Amino acid sequence: SGNYYNQGEIRKKELEQSCCVLGIPASDVTVIDHRDLPDDPAVEWDTQLLATLVLKHIEAKNINLVLTFDAGGVSGHANHISLYSAVRYNVCKLLCLPPWAGCRVLVLESVNLCRKYISFLDVLISCLLPRDALFILTEEETEQAKRAMRCHRSQLLWFRQLYLLFSRYLVVNSLRLL
């Protein structure tokens, strides 16, 4: 629920505002508040527990495409890496069996610190490197993404302000099939 620093309720509201900016209705937002899945950048979550929760969500919403972090979690955040591990577990153990055989998984590529903060200059690099999917945002889409990020006021620390200015993820995203 984003309760690191005891801001769970604030962060839930910020998430709904951010999703609204992106055109995602509140009814499509699911927040999981589970005592064994604390919001903590240093805590690795239980893979099987998280895999079960993710699979239930896929089934309940009839999802056929999952986008998640890669093994680097984009920022090295243990919770992000745990989510990747849970989705990977599902793909390897469960999704290959019917009825989940049709669910595809794309993972967002983690890049080194230099590439992460060269904004639009990473487009050329990303175009030259192998990947399964590449999303290059228009200027309008980048501005929309920035507005959505700004909804997360409780999390806009100095380094996230730099992220808004320089991150390649607000301009280009490379993904691989899992």
TrEMBL record:
SUPFAM superfamilies according to UniProt: LmbE-like
GO process annotations (BP): GPI anchor biosynthetic process
What sort of enzyme, by top EC class, is this? hydrolase
Q: Give the EC number(s) under which this enzyme is classified.
A: 3.5.1.89
Q: Which InterPro entries match?
A: GlcNAc_PI_deacetylase-related, LmbE-like_dom_sf
Q: Which GO terms describe its cellular component?
A: endoplasmic reticulum; membrane
Q: GO MF annotations for this entry?
A: N-acetylglucosaminylphosphatidylinositol deacetylase activity
What family does the database annotate? Belongs to the PIGL family.
Q: How is this protein named in the record?
A: N-acetylglucosaminylphosphatidylinositol deacetylase
Q: Which source organism does the UniProt entry give?
A: Hippolais icterina (icterine warbler)
